[in-house]
Amino acid sequence: MSKSFIYGGAIVSALAAGQVGAQEVALSFTAAQVAQGRAAYDATCATCHGANLDDGPLAAPLKGDAFMRKYGGKPARELFDVLRTTMPTGNPGSLSADTYAALTALVLAQNDVVAGNVPLPADPQLLAAMQVPAGGFSFMAFSPYTARPAVDRPTPLDEFEPVDDDAIAAPPPGDWLGWRRSYDAQGFSPLREIDTRNVADLRLAWSWTMPAGSAEGVPLVRDGTIFAQSYGDIVQALDAKTGDLLWQYTHALEDGASPFHKRGLALHGDRLYLGTSDVHVVALDVATGGVVWDTTVGDFRRREGLNGGPLVARGKVMVGTTGTGVAAQFGGPQIVGLDAETGAEVWRLGTIAKPGEPGDNSWNGIPFTERSGASVWTPGSYDPDTGLAYFGTGNTYDTGPLLKPNAPGQTSDALYTNSTLAVDPDTGELVWHFQHFPNDQWDLDWAFERQIMDLPVDGVTRRVVLTAGKIGIYDAVDARTGEFLFSIDLGLNNIVTEIDPRTGEKHVNRSLYPDGTVQLVCPHGAGAKNFLPGAYIASRRVVVVPLNEACMDVFPVPGGGRGGLSSGVNWGIRPRPDGDGNYGRLQAIDLATRETVWTTRQRAPQTSGVLATAGELVFAAAFDRTLRAYDARDGRGLWEARLNDVSSSSPISYAVDGKQYVAIVVGEGGFHARSFAPLVPEYRSPPNRGATLWVFALPD
């Protein structure tokens, strides 16, 4: 099922990373590639850029002095990457790698670079070592007749300390070592230089333009280096103090694979781990960005995906895959465990109940080979105390058969959809599961962050896994056994009528099951809650969660078609019947008393996760392109900054040389952010969408 390749050698590592100072290779391409590029260009690019590459009505010129000022004297990979990640419009990355190499050759030829006898490679890692001639403005290029002077300056990578399990469990205050900083997914920084008294003075420290495209990834920081994954399967290491680029890695996608956003990276040892759009897991050397190993864990041709991100613990790289409509006969969604050193597959756990296993009878007679769903699309959590990793699963879209009356001995729970799965990292054994929302007929996943904490429950301190689904209900279960402890309904749904206080079973309003009529259902399919994670403030036992207040009209597909769900329905977003025009909401809940501490609301929908800090601050961003800081004690707004695009990531905080920074990635976003756009038409996105890493700090 998996293929693993281990890389070695200094030259390969340098080329793979595209690091500054790597040995240059002469740029060359052939006339045949130019002809192939012309055919592809005429078919897919000329409408926007024009037949002559500089006379199009809808896109910038691809030749001329201005173009060569931008790309001349730079690695050929930069030109290849911009073509691959932006063309053709509406479906970038959809052409083969060889076709993008041919398009690059065409553009070079149109800018008076002479063809040769050696074809231009399609591998971005090799293109990194080739330099585009400077063209008409040759005085801007370094002389080819003089050796380049050596550049030897210290970088924070010189001080990088390997990361172990203990560090991720309790990171140094200045580091952000996982998707939610630490294994427990609490999203809390112990830094306190920026606080309620001085946050109004927060200023831009630096920014970095990332490759354009959907940006949902959360950066990691270790010892003054920030690592960020961008659209187009590009990873960059930057100086966290200055924003200077240290190295860049571009994963060359298999032919036919299209770029897709990712949500998380992982650090462990001296390696950085990432998932890719063609369903690989790659380990990079943090010092150079060179590839250490590359393992295939799924097949994108079967619509399998990998967009959550890896979790590394106990020597295993654990990652969940997605598979909308991927039938179990092809494996279905999986949680895969790889050896962190070699990339070899150690175990694989399917998220759909198999014949002969508990839960096989929960699909109302659907044969195993036809079952689908239970995707894993956010990174997992890990608890060193229990030795277990925790992953969440989503729903199934094949809901029609689950609506039918149950045959004897059958249910429609559809295990293990909408569940928490507790997994042994050593073996992949499913130790326990808890299903939060069986027979989900409304696309209301429960696939998001699993936060781990100690809480008082009925007078006894319990180790707890806390998680909320799209429906806007928190469930707390025992981290060791999966025993249900309590639920907190945030009041944004009209589906659940009662929750059993002993078992957590949710009784639903069955009149809202699809029945061929138009039905008002709350929340919308994008969720009151979604993958945008909340933050937990342990000193107050308060969780702060980003929410959106919206509903949907669920309606039958004309002519009896399948629709978004196989029950034959689609849905459209609409305001809540009791709405007042405000959609975005932050809510702080005391988990000891299970009461709301404060709520702040605004018109702009929430689009980012939440960061909480020891400075009594909470940070979050919204659809109006604004990052805001709130007082964590009462929700008062204290500071805001307008950004260049919508953030669909989560803010983080880190420190370098004792100075605290707050950072956030912005850039277009995905389904979640776009889903709420019809509610607020006055918030118009930039015509030229851009991804940027913004970093703020107090003045020196």
Provide a quick synopsis of the model.
This protein is mostly beta strands.
Could you characterize what this model shows?
The protein has 700 residues and is mostly beta strands. It folds into two domains: 22-140, Cytochrome Bc1 Complex, Chain D, domain 2, CATH 1.10.760.10; 159-697, Methanol Dehydrogenase, Chain A, CATH 2.140.10.10. The chain is 11% helix and 30% strand. It has ten helices and 39 strands. Strands 1-11-10-9-8 form a five-stranded antiparallel beta sheet. The protein has a five-stranded mixed beta sheet with strand order 2-33-34-35-36, with no helix packed on it. The chain has a four-stranded antiparallel beta sheet with strand order 3-39-38-37, with no helix packed on it. Helix 5 (76-86) crosses helix 6. It is globular, with a radius of gyration of 25 Å. It starts with a strand and ends with a strand. The relative contact order is 0.11.
